[in-house]
Amino acid sequence: KTFRPRKKFEPGTQRFELYKKAQASLKSGLDLKTVVQLPPGESINDWIAVHVVDFFNRINLIYGTMSEYCTERSCPIMSGGLKYEYRWQDDSKYKKPTKLSAPQYMCMLMDWIEMLINNEDIFPTRIGVPFPKQFQQVCTKILTRLFRVFVHVYIHHFDSIINMGAEAHVNTCYKHFYYFIREFSLIDHRELEPL
User: Fold this and answer.
1) Backbone CA torsion sign across 192, 97, 64, 143
2) Which site in 21, 25, 146, 177 is 20 to 30 Å from 31, CA atoms measured?
3) Domain of 147?
4) What confidence tens digit (pLDDT) does each residue in 96-116 have?
5) 152 has binding-site annotation
């Protein structure tokens, strides 16, 4: 239930080309700090959109691979250790921050992000259609919540990741994510404290 099919970019579109550039850079062995930098002449909003969708796909896959270890019983509270608790608020069903189990939080999060990235008014895919004024704010909120998945996985389930032999993949994905959010100042520094 927490796994979702990958969101894809249409071949021939500018975002598809940006996605190919980003993927080629990642596979070339380049320094991740350099890879996340905006390519010359490209739109920052397009670059951010491509990365938000890619991070959604990757983090959703990471959580999906270890979700059998993250249950209502093992994780009754969405947290990052004893010091950090994450509550869900979506301004529709959950108007106030609400305590949820980690699996419930993850399910709500992935549904919420999927709804946003499929919304053409927020993530336009047609050439010439501008991004909304609040686009980067929406992306900041998405990325902040995706970061919480890393926090929960690293603090509560990293032993499972190691047992699956997936730690190199998770670590590389986290480093890519971290360098990207730092490059564009997309997450408040206080949110990063747990890791």
Assistant:
1) negative
2) 146
3) 18-23+45-192
4) 999 999 999 999 999 999 999
5) yes
